[in-house]
Design brief:
Strand content: 15-25%
Number of domains: 3
Radius of gyration: 30 Å
Bound molecules: zinc ion
Structural class: alpha+beta
Number of strands: 17
Largest sheet: 10 strands, mixed
Shape: elongated
């Protein structure tokens, strides 16, 4: 069996959250009654002229800068001609050989280009329930037609389905942080296509690629790419060729079905849009966009690693969910003593209790979590005790020190109190004591367990071990 390496490129469409459409004054809407946000321009009626949305251009520039692209001082709009019921003009206004942005990088994946275009209308296939005079029908909602889009095309730098998912999450966080889209995948404001090919490990020549269309969740994308790699591997192993085609991944059945053979660019008969002048980006526009750029997730993760000494994966977990990063920084402002432990409590303990919710909306105030980590460091609570305190904080909020006192969750101190409990444990388990004396340190487990039961988890395991060794005279 040959070992294959997947080569994956991603194409992402992002709906921009401007107030109005790309080339007319119709307001954007989601969930409004069908065909209530239309006008002669976005319905493609004869004699109308498009007017470019200035805000969409600003958003495109902002994204280009965030992705470290080169912004073209002068780019062009083209007509991409194809006939389909969701496209009333018979063409989509897009960008072709002179896009707004070229090159660039996000994380470890290079960007090929970013361009502006308009969205198509939404086709709804009625299926069985919608049969009219016995035949199946589809209906069109033109509200979406003409919504501003950016298309982001990566270089084929992705090497695994997991990497694709992680990178798309980073992209989504980045776009959200820029404030240019709500990037809601369920509502279709972020849609992803994946180009997938495989090649024998060590070969630089690319295999034949297929395109997986319109996947609308990160999990489906990962599963779809995994399924396509398996399908291509089976074909090549059987000596069959991979055919260049567009595929649909059905997340329910896990199956891949061909949609149509892939169009070539010349099928679209691109030509420059005669009704729009070239798009000129001035130095002032660039300067304004640069001034607006927030700290982006990749830079934030780097800062956490560099300045706070967080491990890379911890830093990324915090930075790629910006609400976690903000919460962490708020807590850090109250207790900057040990950023690593604090980070662990945010991404480990807190997230495991509140899931995807924004911690700022939880009952656990950042200063409370910082306070809890402080109590832990001071030895006033054990790990187990601190977890119980956090349970209370998540349920009811409040002050960790007060909870420790009220619920008697404080660590059982060293010295006499803990020593007395250890003595009882040793007395209760003579067999283990004997084994310990013979040098079998594993026998200490039941003794520590006894102490933990007695103290309801409020003893420090290390301290218990120390006292046991002391009592038995072990080195
Ligand atoms: Zn319109």
């Amino acid at each position: 069996m040959t070992d294959y390496e997947p080569v994956i490129g991603l194409e992402i469409h992002v709906q921009l959250s401007t107030r109005t459409k790309m080339f007319c004054g119709c307001e954007l809407s989601f969930g409004d009654p069908p065909n209530t946000h239309t006008c002669p321009v976005c319905l493609g009626l004869p004699g109308t002229l498009p007017v470019l949305n200035a805000r969409a251009i600003d958003f495109g520039i902002l994204l280009g800068l965030a992705l470290e692209c080169e912004i073209a001082p002068r780019s062009l709009f083209h007509r991409k001609n194809y006939f389909y019921p969701d496209l009333p003009k018979g063409y989509q206004i897009s960008q072709y050989d002179v896009p707004l942005c070229r090159g660039g990088r996000l994380g470890e994946v290079r960007i090929h280009r970013v361009h502006l275009e308009e969205d198509a209308a939404k086709l709804v296939h009625l299926g069985e329930s919608g049969r009219i005079h016995g035949s199946a029908h589809s209906i069109v909602d033109f509200n979406r037609g003409g919504t501003p889009l950016v298309e982001i095309v990566s270089e084929p730098d992705v090497r695994s389905p997991e990497q694709a998912r992680e990178w798309l999450q980073l992209l989504r966080t980045t776009v959200r942080q820029l404030g240019i889209s709500d990037v809601n995948m369920e509502e279709g404001s972020l849609r992803c296509d994946a180009n997938v090919s495989i090649r024998p490990v060590g070969r630089s020549e690319l295999g034949v690629k297929t395109e997986l269309k319109n996947m609308n969740s990160f999990r489906f994308i990962e599963r779809g790419i995994t399924a396509e790699i398996a399908r291509q591997t089976a074909l090549l192993d059987a000596g069959e060729p991979v055919v260049q085609e567009t595929l649909h991944f059905d997340p329910q059945s896990g199956s891949l079905t061909p949609l149509r053979s892939k169009e070539e660019a010349h099928d679209y008969r691109y030509f420059p849009e005669p009704d729009l002048v070239p798009l000129v980006v001035t130095e002032e526009m660039l300067a304004e966009a640069r001034a607006q750029l927030p700290e982006l997730p990749a830079a934030r993760a780097e800062r956490y690693a560099r300045e706070l000494g967080l491990a890379d994966d911890r830093a990324r977990l915090l930075a790629f969910r910006s609400e976690l990063g903000s919460y962490f920084e708020a807590a850090l402002a109250h207790d900057g003593e040990d950023p690593q432990t604090l980070a662990n409590w945010v991404v480990g303990e807190l997230v495991s209790r509140i899931g995807d919710a924004d911690p700022a909306q939880s009952r656990v105030a950042p200063e409370a979590l910082a306070g809890l980590v402080g109590l832990l460091r001071a030895g006033r609570v054990t790990q187990g005790g601190a977890r119980q305190v956090l349970d209370r904080l998540v349920a009811d909020g409040g002050d960790p020190a007060a909870i420790v006192d009220a619920e008697d969750l404080g660590a059982v101190g060293g010295g006499d109190e803990l020593g007395a409990i250890v003595d009882r444990a040793l007395e209760a388990q003579p067999e283990e004591v004997e084994q310990l004396r013979q040098g079998n340190m594993r026998a200490i487990g039941p003794i520590v367990g006894f102490v933990m039961r007695e103290t309801k988890g409020r003893a420090d395991g290390k301290e218990v071990t120390r006292i046991v060794r002391e009592r038995l005279g072990l080195s």
